[in-house]
Specification:
Mean pLDDT: 88
Radius of gyration: 26 Å
Number of strands: 12
Helix content: 40-55%
Order of helices and strands: HEEHHHEEHHHEHEEHEEEEEHHH
Largest sheet: 6 strands, antiparallel
Low-confidence stretches: none
Strand content: 15-25%
Structural class: alpha+beta
């Protein structure tokens, strides 16, 4: 009911703003209103983007040149990865990975718990992507038409509009720099965040003490001992037969020694349970407790009085979604598929290589890329269904 109330309130507020905007002719003040998207376009921020580009012009151009090489690599990587995954769906389905568009529809494609983190990640990826295009364009002396912000239902973002005609008349290297800038910046930022994420305990160590409490039960096998004795999803295992369990590795060391029919006392934060293990259907000499998915349950104690103890929990999830969204958007955006950046990037590459009919090859690349992507979507749905995060 809380989620429904929020949605109803948001819808009413959205259409109230839309109606008021229409009544006062918001377009006269630079706003563009439609039932699904509100945007504000202005030239006031052009000077700020130009100033940012001018401060480190040489550095921006060096990075933009690196972006060209990276863009080629990302394009090849995107096509190869999707093509290889399509091959796996046909010949080795057990090795295939689900490929689905990550739509921020709370309660449908994504849980309400995850929604704020995904919303933040998508909003930031849009802003940084467009800003990178604008900065590189100005560093290469391409004027800007406008800079703006938008709200598309739940998504917040920004956009930068270079003067398209001047960009199209610019040298090929300039166009390549501008077209590759967004994806390059996304992947670069994503890799930095991923580095922080994979070393999370180290990066927060100056501010927090990390406590590995136990192993959280994320998935149970139906009709197996743990479920039958009343262990629930979310329970935290802290001991087995008197042996303390703090990490997944601790629990795995116990699991590998379990035989069918073995009596185990499982200690959780809610209490203790005694079970007799069942044989593993894939290995009759091995016993199963009935847990098929787990994660480490970690708490943090602040070393500074003003820092809340739950801040690392939010930082961890922010870094997770930032790294996922930034890297994946950067890679997919370099697919040679209209209207993605990879489309114009590939055409410019063809033209720079002296190919006489770049537009025809560009259309062919779009058809092939679209076919590969759609087939991945269709086969992913057929094999895994819609995933909810």
């Amino acid at each position: 009911m809380d989620a429904l109330t929020f949605i109803l309130f948001y819808v009413v507020a959205w259409f109230t703003v839309y109606a008021v905007g229409r009544m006062v002719n918001a377009e006269d003040f630079g706003f563009d209103l439609s039932p699904l998207v509100f945007s504000y376009k202005t030239t006031r921020f052009n000077s700020w983007v130009s100033s940012l580009a001018g401060r480190g012009r040489r550095l921006w151009l060096v990075l933009a040149n690196v972006g060209i090489a990276t863009g080629v690599g990302l394009m090849v990587f995107a096509i190869y990865t999707l093509g290889n995954n399509l091959f796996n769906f046909v010949y080795h389905v057990e090795a295939a990975t689900p490929v689905q568009p990550l739509l921020p529809l709370p309660g449908l494609t994504i849980s309400w718990d995850t929604f704020p983190y995904l919303l933040l990640a998508i909003s930031l990826v849009l802003v940084t992507h467009e800003l990178a295009h604008g900065v590189v364009a100005r560093a290469d002396n391409i004027p800007l038409k406008s800079v703006g912000v938008f709200v598309a239902v739940f998504l917040f973002g920004g956009f930068v509009e270079p003067e398209e005609k001047q960009l199209e008349r610019a040298p090929d290297v300039t166009q390549l720099r501008v077209y590759a800038a967004g994806a390059f910046s996304n992947v670069a930022i994503g890799l930095v965040v991923l580095l922080l994420f994979t070393n999370f305990a180290v990066t927060i160590n100056p501010f927090y003490t990390t406590n590995y409490v136990g192993v959280k039960v994320e998935g149970l096998i139906p009709n197996y001992p743990l479920e039958n004795v009343g262990v629930h999803l979310g329970d935290v295992i802290i001991g087995v037969n008197g042996t303390s369990i703090h990490t997944i590795n601790d629990l795995q060391q116990v699991i590998v020694q379990v035989t069918p029919g073995m009596s185990l006392t499982i200690t959780t934060l809610r209490g203790s349970y005694t079970i007799n293990t069942k044989p593993d259907p894939k290995n009759a000499t091995h016993g199963l407790m009935g847990i098929n998915s787990m994660s480490e349950y970690i708490t943090y104690n602040s070393k500074l009085p003003l820092l809340p103890n739950n801040l690392p929990y939010h930082l961890f999830r922010i870094e997770l979604w930032l790294s996922l969204v930034f890297i994946n958007v950067g890679v997919i955006n370099m697919l040679p598929l209209y209207p993605l950046d990879g489309d114009k990037f590939l055409e410019t590459l063809f033209r720079a290589a002296g190919i006489k009919n770049p537009k025809g090859l560009r259309k062919l690349a779009t058809v092939i890329s679209l076919a590969i992507l759609l087939l991945n979507f269709i086969l992913s749905y057929a094999q895994f269904g819609f995933l909810k995060f």
